[in-house]
Structures are given as C-alpha cells and as structure tokens.
Amino acid sequence: MVVEGNHEIEKQAGNQSFVAYSSRFAFPSEESKSSSTFYYSFNSGGIHFIMLGAYVPFSKSEKQYKWLERDLANVDRSVTPWLVAAWHPPWYNSYKAHYKEAECMRVDMEELLYSYSVDIVLNGHVHAYERSNRVYNYTLDPCGPVHITVGDGGNREKMAVEHADEAGNCPEPSSTYDEYMGGFCATNFTTGPAAGKFCWDRQPDFSAFRESSFGHGILEVKNETWALWTWYRNQDSTGKVGDQIYIVRQPDVCPSLITLPKGSFADS
Question: Does the record carry Secreted as a key word (predicted)?
Fold first, then answer.
C-alpha cells in the first residue's frame, strides 16, 4: 500500500501531476469511500490504516478532511482496535532537513487524529530514522500517538545527519515553506523549554530516539493493547536491533470518540 510523496509530483504537460503514481498502483479508494488516490484507508488484522495526502488540500473545508472525519467516525474498534495513520512528510522532526515543513498539515489535522486516539503515525521524507515519545501539539501527552519517521530505506540524496537543535543548524523560518504543502505555517514555539524559539537547543523532549542510518522497521501487533515496533539498520539485517519499543494502548486512560469493548480483539 502506497501514499504519495514529493517525488511523485512529476509535473507534466497540461499542468498535470502525480499521473504515474495514480496510474501505476491500485488503491482501495472506492472501498473506503474516498474519491481520491491520495487518501484512503484499509484494514489489516487488528489495524485500521489511514493513508493521508500531504500534497493535496487538507484544510478543514477540503474534501480530504471531511473524508477523514467520516472514516474515523466509522472505525469499529472492536474489530480494529489499533489506528495507524501514514503520510509522507513528518510533523515531528528534529532534523534540519524538512524541519517544520508540514506544519500547516499538523495545524489542520492533528486535533482530529488526537480526538480519535490514533496510536501510531508513520512517515518518510526525512532520510534518517526518528521515533517520538507520545506527543500532541509539541507537548508530551500519554494519549498522543507515537510518531515514527522511517524515511531511511535508501536513496540517491544521501542521509540526513544534521539536527536543527545543533549550533548553527536552526533553519531560517521562511526557508521551511513548501509550495505543495499548504503554505507557510511554521512559527516559534509558544510553550515548553523552547518557548520563543524556532528550534530547541538540545534534542527535543518529543524526540525519543534518532539515528542517521539506513534501515527498516517491523510493526507486530500482539493483541488489542500491545504492539512491538522494531527498527533495524540495513547493514545489520535482522541480526541486531537498532531500536525497539512496546507501544501500549490505554483505552481506559485515553478514551477516543469510539470506545473499544473489552476482549473483542481476541474474539474477532
């Protein structure tokens, strides 16, 4: 299952874009009541996956946002207790590369995903690895999702190695603008240790682990409340774990707008 990124824009004659992406892959758009190849959803085991488009309109008045509202409202968490969302550019990124580039999307969509207790967010775009603590609106929150940037599978553009919190690496705010991602929304932090600044001066609290290595990850859902995420460096294959964490759902502590009957995962 795929989702579009910046490399799939591929502008063509007649102001067309994403033509190869939309033509070469199959998408369960119709099955998930989406009118687009850029955003859709599907179930796999006990997970409801939501694929979102960062390079097509996503504000609250747009079709994508309204589709997301309907899709989340129709999730049956007695069948798929886990909610995993994926899109290309990360919202929580401490690397200099693509720093705060997707801030407009975060501003428009984060509250909706949080209100339905999305558990895990998967991203790419930054050519390195980073895993967040549970976070919402840049604040550590036990009910926020774990954001995982795993854009380190290998590429021709080399690895992202510089962090925005290192001396001299904080980008000029105006440089974070991306014309394909909703305009310019990146501002200084308003709360927390980095209040009044555009970048932290140390590894941000939301960033739990980061490493500039090519790698890949495996997500294993164990039951309705426990999942194991493991990241491996490519050079190590699966012989040595690079990062590993159990991600634990707490539906009693973090109720979403849809509740999960106890014991339903094992019975489904």
Answer: no
Q: Is residue 98 flagged as an active site residue?
A: yes
User: What residue spans define the domains of the chain?
Assistant: 6-166+175-248
Q: 12: burial class by Cβ within 10 Å (0-12, 13-18, 19+)?
A: exposed
Could you tell me which CATH number the domain at 6-166+175-248 has?
3.60.21.10
Out of 48, 98, 127, 147, the active site residue is 98
pLDDT in tens, 189-214: 999 999 999 999 999 999 999 999 99
Taking CA atoms, 169 is separated from 95, 130, 143, 180, 209, in Å, by 9, 18, 31, 24, 19
**The predicted structure's pLDDT at residue 154:** 82
pTM: 0.93
